[in-house]
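Notes from the 1:1 (GR / supervisor)

We went over the backlog. Supervisor wanted to see one worked example end to end before approving the batch request, so GR pasted a single chain during the call. The sequence is below; no edits were made to it. Supervisor asked that the structure be written out right there so they could see what the output format looks like.
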Amino acid sequence: MGGGIPNSKKKSKMKPKTKKATYIASGVILTLVVLTVVTVLALPNVIRWSAESWLRDRGVEARIEAVELDLGEGLLAVKGARGKAADGAGFEFAEISVRWLWHTLTDKRFVITAVELRDVSSGLEFTADGQMKIAGLAIPAGEVENSAPEAAPEPSEWQVEVGRVALWNTTFCYKDEGRLADADTALPHLADLCVSWDSVVWSGSTRLGPEASRPAGPLPLSVSGKLVIDDRQIANRNAIFGSGISR
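Structure output shown during the call:
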């Protein structure tokens, strides 16, 4: 009898410490779970705000309706985006989605399984002074002439692979104001035109990075697959052209 009392007292003295440690551990785990959930839920808005801010800083007022992010499935979708620069050039699309795999990262391979663009309208423009603009964004000219030659970078061990790429209901415009202003320009209608496709689908694989089956070279790139373009139209002002371009 007498020997059992001290043991019960020892147990009763240990219980508060055990409970306290359990409460602390539970609180830490719950806090981490809540922070993770909040971060994941906030990421789409962060991505949307960051993209709009980045474009605005470069002279394009942009608006994105929604961003969908599913880390479990490996999916990022940007929906209802449009942007316009001060000169009227810009872009618009209903949706751009990217799907990727996680498990290939263990092999140092980043695999994008599919990229889809829907209802896209964009373009490339050269101003009279030679400034290039893509989707309203001014592309700064490189200063390679005055820069010192850089040492060749170390080859990366990572490989990037892109699978299926599909564009649905796409319009791309090209304009070269310098050529249009030149009266002697050959084929001036080619300096201001828009091309539209119902569908452009690349089914295959594009790999960038080291591959054991391929000898090392200056550009570690391999491409295999097929490109299908349906219902193409080329328009210049009021004229519509088919497979042959004429004015």
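Supervisor's comment: Residues 233-247 have pLDDT under 50 and may be disordered.
Batch request approved.
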